[in-house]
Amino acid sequence: MLRTYKIRWLSGTLVLLAFLTLLLPQALLPQAAAAQAQTSGIDAVLVADVSNSMNTSDRDKISNEAMKMFIDMLPVQGDKVGIVAYTDQVEREKALLTIQSDADKSSLKDFIDQLARGPYTDVSVGVAEAVNILNHGADPSHSPMIVLLADGNNDFNKTKGRTQAQSDADLAKAVKEAQNQGIPVYTIGLNADGKLNKDALADLAQQTGGKSFITDTPDDLPQILSEIFADHAKLNVVKLPSVTGNGSYQEVTVNVPNDSVLEANISIMSSKPVEVQLTDPSGQAVDLNSDAAKLSTSKSYSLVKLLKPQEGDWKLRVKGAPKDNIDINLLFNYDLQLVVDPIKTKSYTKGDKVDLAAKLENGGQPLQDNDLYTDMKATLVVKDVDTGKSEEQPLENTGSGFAGTFEVPDNHNYELVIRAEEDSFYRESAPITINASGAAGSGSQPTTSGGEQDKPFPWLPVILGVIVLIVVGVGAWFLMGWLKRKNRGFVGQMVVEIRDENTGDKSYPQYKKLVSFRGRFHLHQLLQLDPELKETEKYVFTPSNGDRIIIRNTAGGTLEKSGRAVDASSGVELKNGDRLSIPLQQADKTILIEYLV
User: Cα(15)–Cα(12) distance, rounded to whole angstroms?
Assistant: First the structure.
């Protein structure tokens, strides 16, 4: 009897361990998601029409200034930006660059200033390349987006035989891929000559979940770019009093409403340069090139970025040229998420009531500053999945969150989203699914009479369960190892030069940091996806032990390491200080690389 009890106890323990093993990863999912949410940012590709028609519609290259202001509004570090300049082909492009310093932003803005213009236009080329860049370099934890600036219809080179039907097919393919990847496309149409195909741009934005903007003057572009930034980051643009320049300093109050603000962006848009001064709430002058604040200037805007600013009234003093109209906007960045308390998972029916509660979290933890809730309003947005209709109902502000009750109106399926908003920002919760299609709820489990000791012990199910547990455990071990290798990061940087074998000239050294790559990347990504160097896609880098990396030629072949030819088909390991020479077959050039840790 004792032996039977021990066997049963041991078997029960094994089954319990099996359940714990299978359930543990599920229990950890919310914490993992919260940790990932803390690091989420923006991966943006700016797509610019650089056809010759822009010489008329944007003579002063205000579109360039607008893109530069968008870059300046991004946080000091963490986000990624890529750039595509197109006509009927990709003229120049820059792969996603992780912003880690002011120098990175300057590099992007310098690239924009160097864009030249050329003949012909094909919008599909720019959009398709932007999607390609995001597919190759976007961070899975970031929010991707594309911003497209265009000024007219397609204009094909007749000698190439390109047709509108071909362009439409390529654009439809790119749009489908953007939809699948959750990439919204924001379109800006510059309608200077009245010939803009507004419907096409609006349709492109609508299909991908972006927004479409139309303007008759390039002077509106900085304002539009700031609105796009705000929309994607779920922020509200706060309008500050406009100023008409008079040659003297004029004061504007900038109110920072709470201490949850990570950054405050003050954009000052004017047709002529302005001078700016700033004092904090205590009345102290602020250095605009310090850890507390940064000033970026261009010929059509100035942008003051306050870093973790003190709550209270700041004083902005602006001096502009006489009669110059100066518009001032304010955008706050918050590290906040709106999280809904879990609800009971079950099948609901008409008339059932679902209690809802939501709160703001900062870095995965409940918000400590309840003053932020004071002026906030929350709304429950209810979408009837079966009919497609949506309705809204207000929720109660409890002072430390939001609460309300949803009463199921019919035996349909519903999607619930809570939206909380105040003057400077809004947040939306993840959707909640309510199954009220009329299916019966689960009843109690059937029971049987008789003592447990009267039943034969279920050996076969227990043995099969143990076997399944072992198989699952081994499979999970291999899977975790594979995932670890796939997401393993890189260290150090590469110094890259390109030598022209016809002239012997070498490009300036470019220092490429590797920390943004995970698992693997190819040399073409490191070369900013330059179409001329496309054959470098076959050279793939993967991480190795001890801060080393491996380069492999997937097509087979040799390269030179420290002056010696080596077979790269099976992989060549690089350590700190190693140099490579990679001759290209299709473009008379050699890629020179030095790996530094």
Answer: 5
